[in-house]
Write a structure and sequence with these properties.
The chain has 460 residues and is of the alpha+beta class. The strands form 3 sheets. The protein has a 4-stranded mixed β-sheet. A hairpin with a 2-residue loop joins strand 2 and strand 3. Helix 1 packs parallel to helix 17, helix 6 runs antiparallel to helix 8 and helix 8 runs antiparallel to helix 9. The chain is globular.
């Protein structure tokens, strides 16, 4: 029995290694961040275990992003649908959970962060927009807050603060307007405003986009809501200026840089002693205290826990990849339209990990307790065997550093009113360097043209 246990642990150690998930997939990430999406697609195609492996959610998401960037919108949605199905169908494997308790969570199928499960629907909405399927895009926008609610309902304690998505409502309003449903657009914009004001400013440092203010006032004016228009003019300290009739619109989404990658950090705990079946692990630096009940364990196991004095538990953390550009604008017909920050994915990622850190720590402590129990059993049989198990436990103590690494750092947007016809416009980005990209759009009177562009430049 002890040989089987050690063999399992040692194999897991060798397979996992010391590298983070980012380091293990550096070639793929380099191809994506350099914009070589055809090569990235070929690299993903080589992963014969991707569709069934423990990282299949990340595999499908990367394939979805690559297909999107290659202009294969239906194929992109096929991949995102598979990732979305996995989120809905995620179920625990008792075998994988047991193995994770004696090794580390990297051996289990990857369970996406809540915001990762949400961003799927942003990409799907963009795909549907490009396919001229506005109803399909609206379905994806509605799914965002449903997904967030369903995920948060599963947490009995330490619920997520990221429980509503303002940008999803913003996008919904843009699509409703494009589809001619001005009243629904006004409602969506109003809901977005509420979430930006109540949640986003404090949690993510994102203020109400000026573009949203103008969209709210414009739709109120179009609907003849004079009282509401006056209310928003006073609230925003802006005077609404009606635009010329017969304009078309360009809605430009700017995806900037890349979101964070997961790394690892560890906390050292001190055992303050045994008392009536309980031991208490304490870290004074972070003000953490974890009582663990061990009273129903054997005498040998209790003795092992009583003698523990110093323990290390590994946890995930994010490492920011700061974008090269800090701001951008669209220049059309001699007029500049600043791109407004709508979603700070980097900040959302950090908040989501912070929200679940207590749950993560509880799992880490459970993993530690199980490992020490195994060490005690082995040491009782043979002192050398116990030493080996102790070494292996230290080697396998590892945080789950997997995450969706092809996501942008942030998403900004603006609306540009244009006359019917062909227009040459410029995306002008600034920051640690200046960058300009030309585009040509054919604008139709009374219609909305959507376009998304991803500036890939960011820190490695």
């Amino acid at each position: 029995m002890k040989i089987k246990i050690l063999t399992t642990i040692l194999l897991s150690t060798l397979l996992a290694g010391c590298a983070t998930y980012y380091e293990q997939n550096l070639k793929l990430q380099s191809l994506i961040t350099s914009g070589n999406f055809e090569a990235a697609d070929k690299e993903l195609s080589k992963d014969t275990k991707g569709e069934e492996g423990k990282n299949r959610f990340l595999y499908f998401c990367n394939r979805g992003v690559v297909a999107f960037m290659n202009g294969q919108y239906e194929l992109s949605n096929d991949y995102f649908n598979k990732a979305d199905y996995y989120v809905e169908d995620y179920s625990k494997s008792l075998g994988n959970d047991a193995l994770a308790l004696i090794t580390n969570p990297m051996v289990k199928p990857y369970r996406p962060e809540d915001f990762e499960a949400v961003i799927i629907h942003f990409y799907k909405a963009l795909n549907y927009i490009y396919l001229q399927d506005y109803e399909g895009a609206l379905v994806e926008c509605r799914r965002v807050n449903i997904v967030l609610q369903n995920l948060n309902d599963k947490y009995k304690k330490n619920k997520n603060k990221y429980s509503r998505d303002a940008f999803a409502h913003c996008l919904m309003g843009l699509i409703y307007e494009a589809a001619g449903s001005t009243n629904d657009a006004f409602i969506a914009y109003r809901n977005a405003l509420e979430i930006y004001e109540e949640d986003y400013k404090e949690l993510f440092g994102v203020k109400v986009p000026d573009q949203l203010k103008h969209d709210l006032m414009r739709t109120a004016h179009q609907l003849g809501f004079g009282t509401e228009l006056k209310f928003y003019e006073n609230k925003f300290e802006l005077e609404y200026q009606a635009e010329e009739a017969d304009k078309g619109h360009l809605v430009f989404f700017w995806m900037n840089g890349f979101g964070p990658v997961k790394d690892e950090w560890s906390i050292n705990f001190t055992n303050t002693g045994y008392n009536d079946g309980w031991i208490t692990l304490v870290n004074e630096e972070h003000g953490m205290t974890f009582p663990i009940y061990i009273g129903n364990k054997s005498r040998d196991q209790q003795a092992s826990f009583q003698n523990l004095s110093f323990l290390r538990v590994a946890f995930p953390k994010y490492r920011e990849r700061k974008p090269i550009f800090s701001d951008a604008k669209i220049v059309a017909e001699g007029t500049a339209y600043p791109l407004q920050l709508g979603q700070n994915i980097n900040a959302v990622a950090y908040q989501c990990l912070s929200d679940r850190m207590m749950r993560e720590m509880a799992a880490g402590i459970a993993r530690l307790a199980t490992k020490k129990a195994m060490e005690s059993i082995a040491r009782n049989e043979n002192e050398n065997l116990g030493t080996i198990v102790s070494i292996v436990n230290a080697m396998t103590e590892k945080a789950d550093t997997r995450n969706w690494q092809s996501l942008p750092y942030s998403i900004s947007y603006c609306r540009v009113p244009l006359d019917e016809g062909t227009h040459n416009v410029q995306l002008e980005a600034g920051g640690r360097m200046d960058h300009s990209v030309p585009f040509t759009f054919n604008i139709k009177k009374g219609k909305t043209t959507f376009f998304a562009f991803h500036n890939l430049e960011s820190e490695k």
